């Protein structure tokens, strides 16, 4: 099957703003103590509004970048690049989240590499469903079905259940964090996750619309963590059971909503014909930035961190793919020198966050525990 790889087709008007982000983010200010004993990591007794950084890696098979998604025969040689990256995380004091998919869990060697890190307490292991290679496979694998949210609910549930059990068995702990392959989650999948005991999802990409590719539209999603449980994954529901922690996307301007409106306008005629959007992006006048070393320079990622940290208790989520940790396995890292540059971008960005912003490292589960504790504390007041 020939489908396009995670193309960010276009962005749309988003009503979120730093002001909205401030009110959402501040809801976690006092949340530092454990809500219960389920969190695996040691959280510091930090009740300040210091910003949080979550480093997430979609940990999966290589060979996805050529426009082909295979049901069988996938290889996970790229996982051998994880220990070098983990060493960097250990030096930085970062505890990353490896969101692993079926081919990784099915591979003894890849699982052993991750299992060793996990057993030492160096990471969180979460779940990453690629529907096309995640048992049970009972669908026609095409462009539409590559998004989990386009499958029948029963099949979504069966795939998530299969991988949840496989990860539990491999790593000795039931996963509580999730990201859908190709960010293909909607409220149906979110409900399934909550029913299966998941505490947090990170499939939302704010300011991004995949609907032209028959995927989800996150154009109106909040850019800071929020509870979901209503009728729309992009709408906060105060009593929801699942915490959504979006991947960090924003602009180099303080008002994200104004920037989004401007960029959306520039994408339409007649501005589109003048290519003003690209000119403004390259000239740094108005630039959309994703917190990913695959798609942004260290300078741009630091700018995005600046914008996010204008709100107290900001939560930032960096993401990239495990295949970028081995030269030649992703389009972003071609050779050894590019791998060094790639790791250097991660280090420079994380150090800036930790030192200049007095930020702290968290996992997805950590943030879910913190937010739940805050909600419980607030309910008692
Ligand atoms: Zn993936």
Q: Which homologous superfamily in CATH is the superfamily?
A: Glycoside hydrolase/deacetylase
Distance between termini?
55 Å
User: What is the CATH topology classification name?
Assistant: TIM Barrel
Proportion in β-strands = 5-15%
Secondary structural class: alpha/beta
| Helical proportion, percent range | 25-40%
* Poorly predicted regions: 1-45
- Count every helix, treating DSSP H or I runs of 4 or more residues as helices: 12
Number of strands: 11
Query: What pattern of helices and strands is seen along the backbone?
Result: HEHEHHEHEHEEEEHHHEHEHEH
Large-scale geometry:
globular
Structural notes for this entry:
There is one protein chain. With 381 residues, this protein is α/β, with parallel strands linked by helices. The chain has a single domain, classed as TIM Barrel. Helix content is 35%, strand content 12%. It contains twelve helices and eleven strands. Strands 1, 2, 3, 4, 5, 6, 7, 10 and 11 form a nine-stranded mixed β-sheet that branches. A two-stranded antiparallel sheet has the order 8-9. Helix 2 links the parallel strand 1 (52-59) and strand 2 (97-100). Helix 5 (153-171) packs across helix 6 (187-195). The longest helix has 21 residues, at 336-356. It is globular, with a radius of gyration of 19 Å.
């Amino acid at each position: 099957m020939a489908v396009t790889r995670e193309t960010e087709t276009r962005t749309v008007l988003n009503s979120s703003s730093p002001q909205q982000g401030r009110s959402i983010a501040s809801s976690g200010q006092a949340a530092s103590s454990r809500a219960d004993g389920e969190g695996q990591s040691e959280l510091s007794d930090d009740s300040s509004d210091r910003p949080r950084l979550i480093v997430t890696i979609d940990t999966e098979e290589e060979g996805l970048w050529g426009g082909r998604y295979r049901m069988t025969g996938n290889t996970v040689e790229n996982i051998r690049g994880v220990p070098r990256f983990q060493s960097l995380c250990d030096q930085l004091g970062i505890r990353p989240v490896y969101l692993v998919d079926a081919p990784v869990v099915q591979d003894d060697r890849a699982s052993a590499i991750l299992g060793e890190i996990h057993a030492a307490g160096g990471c969180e292991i979460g779940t990453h469903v690629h529907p096309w290679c995640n048992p049970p496979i009972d669908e026609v694998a095409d462009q539409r079905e590559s998004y989990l949210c386009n499958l029948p609910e029963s099949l979504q549930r069966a795939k998530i259940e299969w991988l949840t059990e496989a990860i539990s068995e491999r790593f000795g702990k039931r996963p509580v964090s999730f990201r859908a392959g190709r960010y293909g989650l909607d409220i149906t999948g979110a409900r399934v996750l909550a029913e299966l005991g998941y505490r947090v999802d990170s499939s939302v990409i704010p300011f991004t619309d995949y609907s032209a590719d028959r995927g989800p539209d996150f154009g109106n999603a909040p850019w800071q963590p929020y509870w979901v449980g209503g009728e729309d994954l992009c709408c906060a529901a105060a009593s929801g059971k699942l915490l959504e922690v979006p991947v960090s996307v924003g602009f180099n301007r303080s008002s994200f909503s104004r920037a989004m409106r401007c960029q959306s306008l520039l994408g339409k005629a007649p501005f589109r014909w003048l290519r003003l959007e690209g000119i403004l992006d390259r000239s740094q006048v108005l630039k959309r930035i994703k917190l990913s070393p695959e798609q942004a320079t260290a300078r741009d990622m630091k700018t995005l961190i600046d914008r996010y940290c204008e709100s107290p208790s900001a939560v930032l989520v960096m993401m990239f793919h495990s295949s970028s940790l081995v030269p030649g396995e992703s389009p972003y890292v071609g050779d050894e020198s590019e791998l060094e540059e790639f790791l250097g971008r991660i280090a420079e960005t994380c150090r800036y966050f930790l030192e200049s912003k007095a930020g702290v490292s968290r996992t997805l589960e950590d943030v879910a525990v913190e937010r739940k504790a805050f909600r419980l504390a607030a309910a008692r007041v």
